C-alpha cells in the first residue's frame, strides 16, 4: 500500500495520532495546510475536535475550504473524522450556527439523548446499513470510540451506511461518492479503527490508479 494521505492541518484535531495510525496500516501520511500538498495527495483526512464555528473560521482563514473542495472535485477520497465529519455538511446549529464545507447536503444538530450524559464519550456499537469498501472486514457491526454532542442529519438518508445509538439513533458513518465521514475517532478505536483506516488507504490507492 502506498497511498499518500494528507491530514489537513488547520490547528484542530488529533493530527499526530491520526498520522501514526495511518503509518501503522501502511499508508504514507503527511500533515499539511498547504493547498499544493493537498492537490498532490491520493486522499485527505479531515480530523477535528471542538466547536464547529471556530473550526470553520480556521479553515476559511487558511483558504483550505477551496483546497478541500478542489481535491474532492478531482476525485480524491476524503475522510472526515469526528468534528471533521460534521464539517463536510452544509451547516451546523452549534453556537448560533455556521456554514460548513457543503460537500454533503444536510445539517448538524444537537444530539437528542434524553436522560443520557452529554457529551457522548465512549465506545458504541455501529451497525452497517449498506455495503462499503470503508467497512470491509468489520462484520455486521463494530465498536468505535465516540466523543461528541452533535450529530449529522444528511438530506439523503441513503448516505448513512452506519448507525449507532446513544439515547437516540444517529448517523455514525456516511458515504457519498468519494466523500466519507465517521462520527468517531478511528485512531482511538483499536483494531476496528485501524482496519477502517487501512480500508480508506486502499480506497485512495484504487482512486489514484
Structural topology:
Elements: E1 4-8, H1 15-24, E2 28-32, H2 35-40, E3 43-46, H3 52-61, H4 64-73, E4 78-81, H5 83-87, E5 89-92, E6 98-99, E7 104-110, E8 120-128, E9 141-148, E10 150-154, E11 160-165, E12 169-176, E13 179-182, H6 190-208
What would your notes on this structure say?
The chain has 209 residues and is an alpha/beta fold. It has one domain (4-208): Class I glutamine amidotransferase (GATase) domain (Rossmann fold, 3-Layer(aba) Sandwich), CATH 3.40.50. Helices cover 29% and strands 34% of the residues. It has helices at 15-24, 35-40, 52-61, 64-73, 83-87, 190-208; strands at 4-8, 28-32, 43-46, 78-81, 89-92, 98-99, 104-110, 120-128, 141-148, 150-154, 160-165, 169-176, 179-182. The strands form 2 sheets. Strands 2-1-3-4-13-12-11-8-9 form a 9-stranded mixed sheet, sandwiched between helices. A 4-stranded mixed sheet has the order 6-5-7-10. Strand 5 (89-92) and strand 6 (98-99) form a beta hairpin. It is globular, with a radius of gyration of 15 Å. The chain starts with a strand and ends with a helix.
Amino acid at each position: 500500500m502506498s497511498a499518500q494521505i494528507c491530514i489537513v492541518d488547520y490547528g484542530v484535531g488529533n493530527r499526530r495520532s491520526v498520522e501514526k495510525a495511518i503509518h501503522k496500516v501502511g499508508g504514507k501520511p503527511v500533515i499539511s495546510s498547504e493547498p499544493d500538498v493537498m492537490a498532490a495527495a491520493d486522499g485527505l483526512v479531515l480530523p477535528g475536535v471542538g466547536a464547529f464555528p471556530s473550526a470553520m473560521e480556521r479553515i476559511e482563514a487558511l483558504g483550505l475550504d477551496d483546497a478541500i473542495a478542489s481535491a474532492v472535485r478531482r476525485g480524491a477520497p476524503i475522510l472526515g473524522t469526528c468534528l471533521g465529519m460534521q464539517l463536510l455538511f452544509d451547516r451546523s446549529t452549534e453556537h448560533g450556527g455556521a456554514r460548513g464545507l457543503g460537500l454533503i447536503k444536510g445539517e448538524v444538530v444537537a444530539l437528542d439523548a434524553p436522560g443520557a450524559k452529554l457529551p457522548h464519550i465512549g465506545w458504541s456499537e455501529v451497525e452497517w446499513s449498506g455495503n462499503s469498501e470503508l467497512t470491509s472486514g468489520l462484520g455486521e457491526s463494530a465498536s468505535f470510540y465516540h466523543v461528541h454532542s452533535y450529530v449529522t442529519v444528511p438530506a439523503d438518508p441513503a448516505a448513512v451506511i452506519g448507525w449507532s445509538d446513544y439515547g437516540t439513533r444517529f448517523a455514525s458513518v456516511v458515504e457519498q461518492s468519494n466523500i466519507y465521514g465517521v462520527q468517531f475517532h478511528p485512531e482511538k478505536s483499536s483494531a476496528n479503527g485501524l482496519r477502517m483506516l487501512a480500508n480508506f488507504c486502499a480506497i485512495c490507492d484504487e482512486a489514484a490508479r
